[in-house]
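<instruction>
Derive structure tokens from the sequence

<record> Sequence and structure tokens follow
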Amino acid sequence: MSPSDKKPTAENATLLQGFEWNVPADKKHWQRLRHAIPGLKATGIDNLWLPPACKASSPEGNGYDIYDLYDLGEFDQKGGKATKWGTKEELMELVKKADSEGVGIYWDAVLNHKAGADKTEKCKATEVDSNDRTKVITDPYDIEAWVGFDFPGRGDKYSSQKYHWYHFTGTDFNAENKKKAVYKICGDGKHWSASVDKEQGNDDYMMFADLDYSHPEVQEDVKHWAEWIVQECHLKGIRFDAVQHYSQRFSNDLINHLQEKFGPGSVFLVGEFWVGDVQKLTKFLEDMEHKYSLFDTPLLNNFSRLSTTENADLRTVFDNTLVKVEPYNAVTLVMNHDTQPGQTVATPIEGFFKPLAYSLILLRQEGYPEVFYGDLYGMKGEHAEPPSCGNKLPDLVLARKLYAYGDQDDYFDAQTCIGFVRRGTWDKKDGLACVMSNAGPGEKKMYVGEMHSGETWTDILGWEKGEIKIGEDGFGLFPCPGTSVAVWVNKHAEGRDRFGKL
């Protein structure tokens, strides 16, 4: 087959989570991201996951305390016009810049609940056991609940739907007696959703005023919003927050609605189901008919375990992970806004290990890797950290874009030193060899192919000095420093001049 008859190799894609929890509440984040987009694109970032951009219950809210789906920083509500991140005008300038640079925008959809109600409403409710929401501990009685949402600043623009007590299944505060508890709202046909996770007996209630997706008005308004937001912000993807906490049946209906409107695969969909049990994740994917991807929580947990255990067995890094059993539906990551230091599910990953972890998600065939804003730019707040990977994370992203193609062979044959190679394709020929150690210096004799014989390879990260000449048999002996990683590529490969300058 001649080269003209062969299909071009598809470019590797990389996702950037465009925020960390402690981004300053200065209403300038849309501006920061807009200015960063050209450099991100040059580095190899293809898609940008925005923080929750709908109006929160307070001006400093990160958006998971969501108030109004349809207010993107356009209306004077909840303490001002702008969200923590900026105004809608600035958001649309960001979207325009992303469009012009070929960077896709992913939305963070917070659909489980609403917060910051405009008024209280009287309704009947029962208290349930906070550790087992299937256990009712009181008879029904009247409570004064913050469940009235009129959106006075927005009025009826984009949607005329208002929310009242009957649009919710639960809440956590009785304004009449100031008591905090988990309240299950009573009414005809009212119950916790059956198609949620079974943690705490039933995982429907998470926080604030919990939406009732058995109510047709809730279903229709959220479907309308999803269609509107894709068109309004030219979305290429949606990240669904806390999917185990609301109706899986509705999630399926919503995805079907989006596919009917925009076509299958036109909008990438990923759900946050934060559980370490890979069987729960695969069951969820099966129930969702694999129309969805999920974040690989078990892999992140493995990274934490390996980084905090002396002489840990690196060969176990992919054991019981989503990327191992469902690589097409796995979004791989090293850290996010929930697992960063100081957060509720903080998952420690030692600094020396982050370059190893990022090499394992960025340079391999399996999974769709996500890079964390806090690792790229540093984290602020009480647990501030500088950019990770010794500022070499952009180089690893670029190596994925330029060289991580072709057949993959693993050399997972020693406890504290592993390696793998990518041998390149007919039109992306260069390939790479990656070696890492969580103990002393290591080396691997690895086969990169006779097509590379005679080439001289060097470490793109510059941490391992020297040159390796590929033998006539296609093998090279590739070293790495102790508790570190080396990524070897032909010193004359296209794009080598771009490294160390990002």
Notes: The radius of gyration is 25 Å. The first strand starts at residue 15 and ends at 17. The mean pLDDT is 96.
